[in-house]
Amino acid sequence: MRYFNRDSRDYHFEETMEAGIVLTGSDAKSLRTQGASFNGAKIDLIGNRPVLINLTIEPYKYAQNQQIDKTATRPLLLSQKQIAKLISYRRQKYMIVPVVIYTRGQWIKVEIGIGRKIRKYEKRAKIREKEEKKF
To answer: What 3-state class would DSSP assign to 106?
Structure first.
């Protein structure tokens, strides 16, 4: 199971990290069966703690508790060194974006990309290079 963020193609990543994500039981089951939507998903530092914002997980249809917020902020599990690195990148005006959600054994992980947004002329040059390589 791998769910990719299509918006991550618009970024040039300097570094990527793997983080755990805090989920409820029904969220985890729903993520394994139905997937997730990254529309507008981002990672922010609230009180020096990284959280995943606007990741849409549909409610699990067999869950007892149906009062679940689809786009709740979900804390990320990182070491203190990784959090310090994220804070320093954030001060340098880098964007922190979720790239992929996947399972590693029984755990659900999020790959975090740290980088800058690609400008339009850089995208065009990239597309031009791909076209030239084809022929």
So the answer is: coil
Return the closest-CA partner of residue 4 out of 74, 101, 112: 101
pTM across the whole model: 0.81
C-alpha–C-alpha distance, residues 90 and 12, integer Å: 15
Beta strands in the chain (DSSP E): 2-4, 11-21, 42-46, 49-53, 74-77, 95-104, 107-117
- Domain extent at residue 13: 2-134
Count of structural domains within the chain:
1
With a CB cutoff of 8 Å and minimum separation 6, the contacts of 64 are none
Tens digit of each residue's pLDDT (9 = 90 or more) over 59-78? 888 877 666 677 789 999 99
Domain of residue 25, CATH code: 2.40.280.10
DSSP letter assigned to residue 83 = H
User: Would you say 116 and 12 are in contact if contact means Cβ atoms under 8 Å apart?
Assistant: yes
